[in-house]
Amino acid sequence: LSIPSLASTRKSIGFSPVVKASTTATAEAAATTSSTDSSSSSNDGATKTIRSPIPTPNSQRRLVKRFRASVPTANYMDAEEVEVEKQAATKSSSSAVGLLRRFETSTSSSQEVTKQRQQQQQQEYKNEFVFPESIPMPSAETLLLAHNQAASVGSPSHQYQLTRAGTNLLSLQEVILPSILTETSSALKAKQAKAQRNVKDGMPDHQGKDVVEVIEACRKLVNRCIGEAMKDAG
């Protein structure tokens, strides 16, 4: 019997692991050498910026924006979800319209109420001042004071002539009318003081400020009327 040699058997089978391993190692070494050469050549030239493979927040935001801009909402939503979104939008719009209408109604109603109140105030406005219906008669002290003032003038005074004649009378223009003026002015001053207190207390004009103005006008009118009567009597 003839036994074939080991070398011939390996050649016939075609199995050569040592050769393949050496070939693979050679290729890897060549690739490493080329990468080393390329990296060294790049380092020698301009510096190359290497981006980090880890995503940053800004890059994630840009990616999400691009995705949302490229893909419509309806493409990644179910039909039921789209219907729900439509119903919600309809309800929100209807509720907004209803709210706006209620606001307009309330505004118009408040304006109408304000106008009605203003009209009522204008219609119901009434100055509370009333001229005193009964003014008391001049007191003895008031008459005596007017008598003494008139008699002190001397002979030109009408009251002085009456007293000197022993008539025991009072002069109309020098004693009686001035005494009436004093009593009327006192009654008007009392009402004016009350109106001025109302002004300080913040009362409405028809109880305070307007009343003061009317009383001042009345006092001027009374003084003028009494003055004209004194002239006519003298």
What are the main properties of this structure?
rod-shaped, single chain, mainly alpha, 234 residues, 8 helices
Describe this structure as you would to a colleague:
- By secondary structure, the chain is an all-alpha fold.
- It has helices at 6-13, 17-44, 57-70, 79-124, 140-151, 158-165, 172-200, 209-233.
- The protein has eight helices and no strands.
- Helix 7 (172-200) packs antiparallel against helix 8 (209-233).
- The longest helix has 46 residues, at 79-124.
- 9% of the residues are buried.
- The model is unreliable at 13-27 and 33-45 (pLDDT under 50).
The rounded distance between the terminal residues' Cα atoms is 188 Å
Number of helices: 8
Q: Count of DSSP E strands?
A: 0
Could you describe the largest sheet, including whether it forms a barrel?
A: none
C-alpha-based Rg, rounded: 59 Å
Report low-confidence residues grouped into runs of 5 or more.
13-27, 33-45
Strand content: under 5%
How would you state the average pLDDT, rounded?
Answer: 74
Spell the H/E element sequence. Answer: HHHHHHHH
Structural class: mainly alpha
List the helices and strands and how they pair.
Elements: H1 6-13, H2 17-44, H3 57-70, H4 79-124, H5 140-151, H6 158-165, H7 172-200, H8 209-233
